[in-house]
Structures are given as structure tokens and as C-alpha cells.
Design a protein that fits this description.
Layout (H helix, E strand, L loop, with lengths): L6 E12 L5 E2 L8 H18 L3 E7 L2 H9 L5 E3 L5 E4 L2 E4 L1 E6 L3 E6 L4 H6 L13 E7 L3 E9 L18 H39 L4 E6 L7 H4 L9 E2 L2 E2 L5 H9 L2 E3 H4 L12 E3 L2 E3 L2 E6 L11 E8 L2 H4 L3 H4 L8 E7 L2
Length: 346
């Protein structure tokens, strides 16, 4: 590939149980019929055609090889998944993976490892693992830069201690057991998700310290970016002081150091005022939430004096969630893809 890239599109996309039959997801009865699988493939293929993204991070992938074959037909010849889907029993899978597809060459793709020193510092169990192993990919974009792209799927809010539902009337003891299991289990999920976010930020910092490059995180973060759990990922944007020193009183070089280790929500970086309203990427009980995000280093921040590119648009394709048409969307995802358009500065 040669020439200069002046614009490229990056996307995060949760596919919802992407698994090729005769394999099943979570339960033996969860197997797509041939007709359902054809519809799911057709729906996804249409989305890929409309999006025309250059780099896509995928979540909820049980069949990486099938996805690799599909995206290759959409000008995404480079594909990586760094872990294997988990299998509960023969043909029944219980742990999806994340994957990345790119029009640009993927130089390397590795699994983000647990930082053992951080685990000790946080006083967590030494056997801590990510709920879904994140990808850290190095991608070469002609005429722009080599960039680092993380693809993540953080732990959901679903309780880690769910109890089996019983048919008989609930007495006080049963009610207490279920309520405690739910409350404690949701807190355990928050701890897991928050620790995963800490691990990602730690890896980002170490990457920027050792080999500074433009960096992007694509992912289903399973929480809102304003939540206390996820604020640590973008805390740099809200800092007003370092220790006892106010940011406003720091030198330009010192402020650049803070920016170097900060991540920014692509929604906030978007310079297109026509897309100023944030759209939900997921609905639960008829309530919309934004769970899917693109986070970017200061290199994509138009307000940073040494930025290399700007975000000229941010699109959330959620029509299948808000106005579904059964004939077209019967096997769609329950998430909306989020795509940012990046324009390179010269």
C-alpha cells in the first residue's frame, strides 16, 4: 500500500453472539438455524458496507474465522483475534473474544496482560484475569503514523453472584439471599470492570512512556463514561491540579506531559457541530444508554498544540435499535456501531 492517507474511519462494533452454527452460545438451545445465520451475516454485511470503516474493533465474537472471511469481502484484509473463545462443553461456547479488522497492515497484535504490580497495589487476588482479554494492535497507516489500537469489552453490570430463580413463594430468608446475591454480585462486577479499566490505563501509560504513538481504544465499556468506574480512563481531561500545583500555573511543557498520558472521548473531540447530540448505543427496558466508546490520545485533539489529526465526525448507527424493521433487523445486534472519522493534519 502506498501514498498518503488524508482521512480514515475507525469503528467499535458489538456483534451480539456472533457464532456460526452448529455451535451454540451459552446454552445448547442457542443455535442459529441456517436461515437465522444467513440473516445475521446479511445484516452485518450491509452494516459493513454502509460504514466503510478502515479499522473496526469487534466484541462478542465466538466464530473468529467466519468473521475474518466476512470482513475480507469489505476491504478489510487484515484480521486478528489474540485469544480463543471459551468452551463450556462440546459445541457450547461460554466466552466470546474481541477481534480487530483493518484495511491497513496490522504489524502486531497481542493480548493485554494483567499488571501484577498493580494487582498487588490494589490488594486484589493474584489470580485476577480480564473477563475478556483485550487486544493491543500496532497498525501502520500510510503517510500518517504507526498507531496503537486497543479493542476491549469490559465486564458487564450483570451480577457475578446470580442465584437460580425458584418457582415457590419467597419467604424472608429467600428474599434476603437473592437481594444480597444481586447487590454483592453487582458490586463485584463493578470491581472487576473498574480493575480492567485501571489495567488498560496502566498499559496505555507504559506504552506512551516507552514508545509514544497515537493511541485509540475501541470498546464496549459496559458503563457510561461519566461513571466513577470509567472516569479513570479519561480523568486527565478534568484535572485541575497536579499535587498542590494548579494546571493553569504549569508551563507549556508540563501541560504537554499531562496531555501525553490523557485519553479523550471522541464525542468530545468531534468538530462537527451537526453531530453534537449523543445517541444511545444500547437499550435496556426501553431506556437508552451509551456503552460503546472510542477513546483517543492527545494526537487527535484539535485543541492540543502538537496534534496530528482531528475528529471531523462521529456517527452512531442505532436505527435498528430505535426503529427496527423485523424483515431487515431480525438478527441484528443489540448494540449500535460507533464510528469516528479522522482527518490528518499536514
Amino acid at each position: 500500500m502506498s501514498g498518503y492517507t488524508t482521512k480514515f474511519k475507525i469503528c467499535t462494533f458489538n456483534l451480539l453472539n456472533y457464532i456460526e452454527p452448529p455451535n451454540a452460545y451459552y446454552e445448547l438451545e442457542n443455535i442459529y438455524t441456517k436461515a437465522q445465520w444467513v440473516k445475521k451475516e446479511a445484516w452485518l454485511s450491509k452494516q459493513l458496507s454502509v460504514l466503510a470503516a478502515d479499522i473496526i474493533g469487534f466484541q462478542e465474537v465466538f466464530s473468529p474465522e467466519a468473521l475474518k472471511s466476512l470482513v475480507s469481502k469489505h476491504n478489510l484484509p487484515f484480521f486478528q483475534a489474540v485469544s480463543e473463545p471459551g468452551v463450556d462443553q462440546h459445541h457450547v461456547f461460554n466466552k466470546p473474544v474481541v477481534a480487530i479488522a483493518s484495511r491497513f497492515p496490522i504489524i502486531s497484535a497481542t493480548e493485554v496482560k494483567v499488571n501484577e504490580s498493580l494487582i498487588r497495589e490494589l490488594k486484589l487476588q493474584p489470580d485476577f484475569t480480564f473477563s475478556r482479554a483485550p487486544i493491543k494492535a500496532e497498525i501502520s497507516i500510510d503517510g500518517f503514523s504507526t498507531i496503537i489500537v486497543y479493542v476491549v469489552h469490559l465486564k458487564s453490570k450483570r451480577s457475578k453472584f446470580e442465584r437460580e430463580v425458584v418457582d415457590h413463594n419467597l419467604d424472608d430468608t429467600a428474599v434476603i439471599e437473592h437481594m444480597q446475591a444481586d447487590i454483592h454480585g453487582r458490586w463485584a462486577s463493578n470491581i472487576q470492570r473498574g480493575t480492567e479499566a485501571s489495567m488498560l490505563y496502566q498499559d496505555f501509560v507504559e506504552q506512551m512512556r516507552s514508545n509514544e504513538r497515537p493511541t485509540i481504544i475501541l470498546g464496549d465499556l459496559n458503563d457510561t463514561i461519566d461513571s466513577a468506574v470509567l472516569q479513570q480512563l479519561v480523568a486527565g481531561r478534568n484535572m485541575d491540579r497536579v499535587g498542590f500545583r494548579l494546571i493553569s500555573g504549569l508551563s507549556k511543557d508540563e501541560r504537554r506531559s499531562i496531555a501525553k498520558y490523557s485519553l479523550f472521548d471522541a464525542f468530545d473531540l468531534n468538530t462537527n457541530s451537526n453531530n453534537s447530540a449523543r445517541k444511545p448505543t444500547h437499550y435496556f427496558a426501553n431506556k437508552g444508554n451509551t456503552l460503546d466508546y472510542i477513546l483517543m490520545s492527545k494526537d487527535f485533539n484539535a485543541e492540543y498544540d502538537h496534534s496530528l489529526a482531528t475528529v471531523s465526525d462521529l456517527e452512531v448507527s442505532n436505527n435498528h435499535l430505535e426503529n427496527p424493521i423485523y424483515e431487515n433487523d431480525a438478527e441484528c445486534s443489540d448494540h449500535a456501531p460507533v464510528m469516528a472519522t479522522v482527518e490528518v493534519r499536514f
